[in-house]
Structures are given as structure tokens and as C-alpha cells.
Specification:
The protein is α+β, with helices and mostly antiparallel strands. The protein has 1 helix and 8 strands; from the N terminus they run H-E-E-E-E-E-E-E-E. Helices cover 27% and strands 23% of the residues. The strands form 2 sheets. It has a 4-stranded antiparallel sheet with strand order 3-2-1-5, covered by helices on one side. Strands 4-6-7-8 form a 4-stranded antiparallel sheet, covered by helices on one side.
Length: 191
């Protein structure tokens, strides 16, 4: 007697149910994933600028002054560029005299790896110069806000993006902080 082999596979109904479940999961999860990616890009940009500010300060101490970090709209490939308080790029540069010509030490773009980045940077100053002792030349503190074109979370944490600040004190100390954290004594806050 001949045996018939069992045919393995899926029926059309099983495939349609599986595709429908996958579609529902994607529809629910895609917006949350978009917010996650936006927050990751914003945090990466703020952390990169924070690291660059620390680098500028340490290079200033090592070179005994003349190092500054600045925001610019110009491509971050030339040290002799014009600063802009709302620039989309930043440059760390050095000059033995504190004036042009400058030597490029480091340059970054906020759009690095993503031409359609929604990260916006605004500073209360367009550049910060560090002295040979690591303090800020001119004695004024600086604050750079990293926000999103999609909006920022408010003090209660409600909103699409978790925006961050990079603060540079008059002594040259840098902090990466969250302006929505208002609890006194919380080291993540900007107060």
C-alpha cells in the first residue's frame, strides 16, 4: 500500500492573519520608534558638542590658551570661519595669538549621517574661548540649547522629544543637562 506524504505549509487564511497582525503591530510601534530615533539623534548631537567643549578646554590648558569652540553655518572644514549663535555645525580651533589665522582642531556637523536632521542648536553666545587655565575668556557663562523641530517635552515630561542643554560655566566646567528636570538636587537638571 502506498503512503501519501503530508504536505507542510500554510493556508491562505493563516498567511492573511499573520500579515494582518504584523500590520497592526507596525502601525502601533512605528510612531514610538520614530520618537526614539529622534531622541537618540538629539542626545548624540548634544553629547558630541559636550565632548567637543571638554576637548576645547583641555586643549586650551595643554596649549596655554587660544582655543575656542564656536557654532557656525559654514561647513566645519575650515578654522577661519564666521561664528553664528544658531549654527548647524561646530568647530574647535586654536590660534597662538587668539586671532586669525586659526588652526582647525575638530569640526562636526549636526547633520552628520542624516541630511534631514531635525536637531536645532541655539546658544546665548556664538563662541566660547578658553584661557590657558581652562576658564572662559571674558568670564561669561554660556548655554547651548539642543532642541527639535518636532518640539520638546515640557516640565512634566510630556512632549515628543527630550531636549538637552550644554552649559559652560565661567570656570570652564561643562555640563550636559535636561532643562525639564526641576527637582532640587537632581544632578541631571540644569538649575
Amino acid at each position: 500500500m502506498l503512503r501519501q506524504k503530508a504536505i507542510a505549509g500554510f493556508t491562505l487564511i493563516e498567511v492573511l492573519v499573520g500579515v494582518s497582525i504584523l500590520g497592526v503591530l507596525l502601525a502601533v510601534g512605528l510612531p514610538a520608534f520614530g520618537n526614539y530615533m529622534g531622541n537618540a539623534k538629539l542626545r548624540a548631537s548634544a553629547a558630541s558638542f559636550h565632548t567637543a567643549a571638554q576637548f576645547a578646554r583641555s586643549e586650551s590648558i595643554r596649549r596655554n590658551g587660544g582655543v575656542e569652540i564656536l557654532l557656525t553655518d559654514t561647513a566645519p572644514t575650515d578654522a577661519n570661519i564666521v561664528p553664528s549663535a544658531s549654527g548647524r555645525n561646530w568647530v574647535v580651533r586654536w590660534s597662538a595669538t587668539g586671532a586669525a589665522p586659526y588652526t582647525l582642531l575638530q569640526g562636526k556637523s549636526i547633520q552628520e549621517g542624516n541630511a534631514a536632521s531635525s536637531v536645532i542648536v541655539t546658544g546665548n553666545v556664538d563662541k566660547v574661548a578658553f584661557s590657558g587655565m581652562g576658564g572662559v575668556v571674558g568670564g561669561a557663562a554660556a548655554s547651548f540649547k539642543f532642541t527639535s523641530a518636532n518640539g520638546c517635552a515640557d516640565a512634566s515630561g510630556v512632549g515628543p522629544m527630550r531636549c538637552l542643554d550644554v552649559q559652560i560655566s565661567t570656570t570652564g566646567q561643562t555640563r550636559l543637562c535636561d532643562p525639564t528636570i526641576l527637582t532640587p538636587g537632581d544632578s541631571r537638571g540644569c538649575q
